[in-house]
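Quick look at the format.
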Amino acid sequence: MNSTRRTLIKASAMLLAVPGLADAQDTFPNKPLRYVVPVAAGGGSDLIGRTVADRWGRVLGQSMVVENQAGGGGVIACQMTAKASPDGYSLMQGYVATHGTNPATRKVPYDPVKDFTPIGMIGGTPNVLVVNSALPVANLKEFIEYARKQPVAYGSAGPGSLTHLTMELLAQQLDLKMTHAAYRGIAPAFNDLIGGQTQAMFPGLSAALPHIRSGRARALAVTGHARHPLLKNTPTLEETGLKGFDAMQWYGVVGPAGMPADVVARLNSSLNTVLKSPDLADKLSSEALQPTPMTPDQFRRYIADEVNRWRQLARDRGIRLDT
């Protein structure tokens, strides 16, 4: 994990203990807010959005209406949000695809930094390197040795997805040559991993946990700077010697560019209050999500860093998906 990202993550942890900032405007909000989730109803991202919106609305004293806008890998939702009135009543749940990997690997009709006002981070779940349980490797060292002696195919949820780029980052840092098998979603990718058609994958922890627990997949290492509480016996990539290696399925909130500073402060303060709620982590345990509050400026820098580092990796690995 580079120094900028590490500083932002550590600083975000401090916000969990900071009392809420004073309300910026007594009059905001005075009507329901729209909360756009850029995926179809159902699934992990939608669960996170609805859970946060419900609690956030209660803190703000106004209902927060969740609106699912799927399509184009989040492009439709991003365009809608970027063009909305910057009054604070139109918000969107951005995530690593809409404000990270997609702009890094293909041309999108929005600027992930300039066209939005960052409100704050919600949190994230690490990615975990898994292999077919029949593969004769028990740890990362043995996997590296195996991959250097014979062909290894790895699956992903699709070209340019976080599962794709995270494995390419691993291959780059370890100088491994592996064959990429792109699927239309994480479920079929897991089907072929378990069936033996592919040998490895780097999915998000929430998607991998059922297969790890059933014994059909073996976890070798997780991303992040600390072990995840749901995989206490699985080391981080940093522990194995890959200093600075990081990838996370993260979620955060953005609004249109040009929002008033006092409204942003009110929204950020109330969002961080939600993230400090004792039951939030329990409610989102199925998604292995760890709350990671940030200030708006910290989140802005985090988004910019995400886009830049994945864009650099895509250039280095020759990944460009424009059609």
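Next, a different chain entirely:
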Amino acid sequence: MYKKLILKCLLVFGLLASGIVGCSGHSPERVLADIEIRSTELDWNVISTQPSRVKFQTLLTGSVTVLMGGMLNLDDPKTGHIKDEEISVDVYAHWIRHPIKGDFLIDTGLNKQFLTHPQGSLKGLIASFIIKDSTQHPNQDILSQITRYGITPRGVFLTHAHSDHSAGIIDLPKDIPYYLGKNGSLHNYPFIMYTHHFEGIKKLLELDFDHASNMANLGKVIDIWGDASLFAISSPGHTKGHVSYLVHADEGWILLTGDASHTRWGFENGVIPGWSEDRDLAAKSLHKLMAFSDQNPNVRVIFGHQM
């Protein structure tokens, strides 16, 4: 209880400070993504039978140690047997290779700072409360992996901007498009918690779901390239503007929940993340992803921090 109160006070201080001295982290200009959006009803039965177009691979970039209370909402009665103890969770970047569009990443994983520093590139007074520790093997960082696999990123789609999903940006080209859900926060609070992940990026391209298509169970979705190979799914709650993704890979369909659900247990039991900006929205987003998964057991689900 006291920890939560202290954190709230610190965040309020950070917000006040941001109005006085500006963000400690760089905030790029926000513009709407130049993606054709059709306000239509999409038929999953038709879409799901189309041939696949992309190759897909998940890259493990290290792990971070956090509190279980961040991964799962421990106020949920279903978690009565679970303790708020430290847990190590994997951190991913997902690589998509489109035959025409080229290489894209969904989230960027960890940069090489996590090899030598417990909090990596996350800074501020509460950084060590959010990330207790980290583990990364040599050459496991995102830059080492894209070099090893011959990946030339043409763009990055972020589920959201939390440090464990955006840290790899530091080592990626700055002249490629970076996509984020509309009004998604960069979570930079001066002195309290901030990063420099977006330094050098002039514009963030926002995915606007206001007039997006609808798909059964999933609700608002955007067909990113217009060929049903990659869908962005509006899934706010963990953060404002959070985005999940549905990939039609050559191995089959894959649902990337992002941090709409950190873990398999949370997903299967309908328990939202403890770290949720809006718990009601988080529950709605989680339940629609669960409903889609229940009706489509052939779709592989990869959770925010667990395969």
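The CA atoms of residues 23 and 55 lie 38 Å apart.

See the schema section for token definitions.
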